[in-house]
Write a structure and sequence with these properties.
Blueprint (H helix, E strand, L loop, with lengths): L1 E3 L4 E5 L2 E5 L3 E5 L2 E5 L16 H4 L1 H4 L9 H4 L2 H4 L13 E6 L3 H4 L9 H17 L3 E7 L11 H4 L1 H4 L23 E5 L10 H7 L4 E7 L1 H14 L3 E10 L8 H15 L2 E3 L1 H11 L3
Parallel strand pairs: 6-7, 6-9, 7-8, 9-10, 10-11
Antiparallel strand pairs: 1-4, 2-3, 4-5
Helix pairs in contact: 10-11
Length: about 290
């Protein structure tokens, strides 16, 4: 459903022309957000919509629904919309390898069943990135040992309550099987998203980076949160479907959570690819 404002009208007051442009309101779930048209009907200037123009079919296709219309009653064509198709430019890209820590990779109550397999695949892909001059950043989800920066996490997150993410602890350390290059950056974070409360955005912007590739653990928690944060800051996001994995939560299996997260991110937030697909794109984009 959408509600459309007034169509474009212009009037002159002296030498100044006053213009009204229509606004479209689009329902996504239970949230309504407004998007101005990409092109002002009164002139040639393009109105910027940022990364939404690539990732969100509701914006990129300039949809306008009329209440009660056939298109308003059917969601099929939107659910099957083509995925985002932006390119990769190696010199403007970075790999964010999320939380490959002991407690998430293996041998803990919150470890992902496929953690060791993903660790091996990500090690190989990170080397592909280094060879293409793509910056590699490894994050760690850690908190002060005394819990003074845990906040509400101490109430909601079992690993935090158990002290598993205490900085300096064996469980919070990067997995010993993770290969870290000399030029790689290590980034500590105290919340699920890698942008929250860190200098990550400054690090990326200062290097002219506008695209990130996400790998790591856990898919539907820190990886997804970081992907959403990045897209909201107008970074292009590639999300590796077999370079991320998760653990069962509640009544949902790891497979179910992985599938649901990839579907959501691929529809609105990111370009979801396998490691092999991403590797081919990087090598094809490399200078000949």
């Amino acid at each position: 459903m959408s509600m459309t404002g007034s169509t474009c009208r212009g009037r002159r007051a002296g030498s100044v022309r006053h213009v009204e442009t229509e606004t479209r309101f689009v329902w996504i779930g239970f949230t309504v957000f407004a998007v101005r048209p990409r092109r002002n009907p009164c002139g040639p200037r393009t109105v910027p919509v940022g990364i939404l123009g690539y990732t969100c079919p509701l914006v990129g296709r300039q949809l306008s629904w009329e209440s009660g219309s056939r298109s308003a009653r059917s969601h099929t064509r939107f659910a099957k919309a083509a995925p985002a198709m932006f390119p990769v430019v190696p010199k403007r890209s970075a790999l964010l390898n999320i939380d490959m820590q002991r407690c998430f990779v293996a041998d803990s109550p919150v470890a992902a069943p496929d953690g060791p397999a993903v660790l091996e695949r990500v090690n190989g892909f990170a080397q592909v990135c280094r060879e293409a001059d793509i910056l590699v950043i490894h994050t760690s989800f850690v908190l002060r040992p005394d819990g003074s920066d845990a906040g509400v996490l101490a109430e909601t997150a079992p690993p935090v309550r158990a002290g598993m993410l205490a900085k300096g602890s064996e469980s919070a350390a990067l997995h010993p099987g993770l290969l870290v290059g000399e030029s790689d950056i290590l980034l500590d974070k105290s919340r699920f998203g890698a942008f929250h409360g860190t200098d990550l955005e400054t690090t990326l912007r200062s290097r002219g980076i506008d695209t990130i590739i996400i790998s790591g653990l856990l898919t539907n928690v820190c990886c997804e949160t970081t992907a959403r944060e990045a897209m909201m800051r107008d970074f292009h996001v590639f999300f590796l479907s077999d370079g991320t994995t998760t653990a069962p939560m509640g009544d949902a299996s790891a497979t179910e959570l992985q599938k649901a997260t990839l579907a959501t991110l691929g529809f609105l937030f990111a370009r979801v690819l396998t490691i092999d697909e991403m590797t081919r794109m990087i090598r094809e984009a490399a200078p000949k």
